[in-house]
Design goal:
The longest helix is centred in the last third of the chain and has 28 residues. Helices cover about 10% and strands about 40% of the residues. It is mainly β and about 425 residues long. A hairpin with a 6-residue loop joins strand 2 and strand 3. It starts with 16 loop residues before the first strand and ends in a 29-residue tail after the last helix.
């Protein structure tokens, strides 16, 4: 008997599986996974939880934390706030960071712990604080990075920050810009931070950066040279490998995923055949060997993974190669990967046409962690949770889609925060 039953797509004889995560009750059916714990057993993200009464197009979002034994559980929001988004999770899954929303135009960074619940991060000491959001967290949960906003939520000067219990540090920005910067990810020990900053003639141009206390903020350049954009999105455990995306030509619509090392510099990872020239790298395994993100094929945005042996390929193709049947699914983006490179999370369009978070294991042999998912409670909760998920999946109207931009932004037409830092 396959212990994972109807909740999981995949043969029990293998480590590989594909698991739709459902959504929170209330509002439209829509969810997206932003990050996953080191062992692949805790997933965080957002879901539409309540109908909107304040102008949000599809409803109010709540941050969630998913585990095999409890399923998808809302983390709530800060007092007086209207919603929340979870961006990242610590290695053991006990600490979650993200943004608590004040309507559709502002928010405040939060840190949630299993012992304290959701607490605001005090980052007001840097800049003229109007709002902010937390993008990533160190392995032990003690270091949080993100950006404050001194003007409208998606505009105005933005100081990137590094927060610890001892205080908040302004990371500065690259020379020649307009004091706009954002920290997107942090190494396991919290010492290396990556993101992007305005540079050159104006804040219209952005450059990926790597920050350390010793060297400060150092620009990484871009794939083609000149005044074109690059964005760092993820970093390996030791800070030596950085991934992201860069304009791939003077045409601002051309984008290519990259992998950066100090020895090799910024190297493009290619894109999928059939679509426009578009790919982004959103996260990387602890050792820097496996990269996940998004590409574009003839059917639109698709989740991708990269390694040195196989190059850039669709996550769907890898799962199909392992014997899984994903009929009716389009995996739109892969936003994060577990430390060991075996488990990927993202969002896609389910067979009912709705945006749904998913969890997948891409190993071809039995894994204790994969089999453990069943033993920790999936089977016990399958009847009740599975029935609820399947029922709402077919009862709720479809949510209109919009192409992901690859950077962590809230998209007004869908309110999607894509992948870790919030990742869309």
């Amino acid at each position: 008997m396959c212990l994972l039953g109807a909740l999981m797509v995949g043969p029990c004889a293998r480590g590989a599986f594909f698991l739709p995560l459902g959504d929170l009750p209330g509002g439209y059916f829509s969810s997206s996974a932003s990050d996953v714990s080191a062992d692949g057993k805790v997933v965080v993200g957002w879901s539409v939880a309540r109908p909107s009464s304040t102008g949000w197009p599809v409803g109010i979002l709540d941050a969630f934390r998913w585990t095999p034994d409890e399923g998808m559980v809302s983390l709530g929001r800060l007092e007086g706030h209207s919603g929340s988004l979870a961006s990242a999770v610590s290695a053991d899954g006990s600490v979650v960071v993200g943004t608590s929303l004040l309507g559709a135009s502002s928010g405040e960074p939060f840190r949630w712990a299993s012992t304290t619940g959701m607490q605001p991060l005090d980052t007001r000491s840097i800049g003229n604080f109007v709002g902010g959001d937390a993008s990533a967290v160190s392995a032990d949960g003690s270091v949080v990075v993100g950006a404050n906003h001194n003007g409208f939520f998606f505009g105005g000067p933005r100081p990137a920050f590094r927060w610890t219990a001892e205080g908040t540090v302004d990371l500065g920005d690259l020379p020649g810009g307009d004091a706009v910067a954002r920290a997107e990810d942090v190494s396991a020990d919290g010492s290396v931070i990556v993101g992007w900053s305005s540079t050159g003639v104006s804040s219209l141009y952005t450059e990926a950066f790597r920050w350390t206390r010793e060297s400060g903020m150092v620009g990484l350049g871009n794939l083609v040279g000149g005044e074109v954009d690059s964005f760092a999105r993820g970093v390996s455990a030791d800070g030596s490998v950085i991934v992201g995306y860069s304009d791939a030509s003077a045409n601002s619509d051309d984008r290519e995923a990259f992998r950066w090392t100090s020895a090799g510099g910024m190297v493009g990872l290619g894109d999928l055949p059939g679509g426009r020239r578009f790919s982004s790298a959103e996260d990387v395994s602890a050792d820097g060997a496996i990269v996940v993100g998004q590409g574009e094929s003839a059917i639109g945005p698709e989740a991708v993974l990269w390694d040195a042996t196989h190059g850039l390929r669709r996550v769907t193709d890898r799962l199909t190669e392992l014997g899984l049947d994903l009929s009716g699914w389009t995996l739109s983006a892969a936003w994060a990967i577990s430390a060991d490179g075996t488990t990927i999370v993202g969002n896609g369009i389910n067979p009912s046409g709705q945006t749904e978070a998913w969890l997948a294991n891409i190993t071809a042999v039995p894994e204790p962690s994969a089999l453990g998912l069943a033993g920790i409670g999936l089977l016990a909760g399958a009847a009740s949770r599975g029935a609820r998920v399947r029922a709402v999946r077919h009862a709720r109207p479809s949510v209109s889609r919009r192409r992901s931009a690859g950077a962590r932004r809230w998209v007004a037409s869908q309110q999607v925060c894509c992948g870790r830092a919030a990742r869309t």
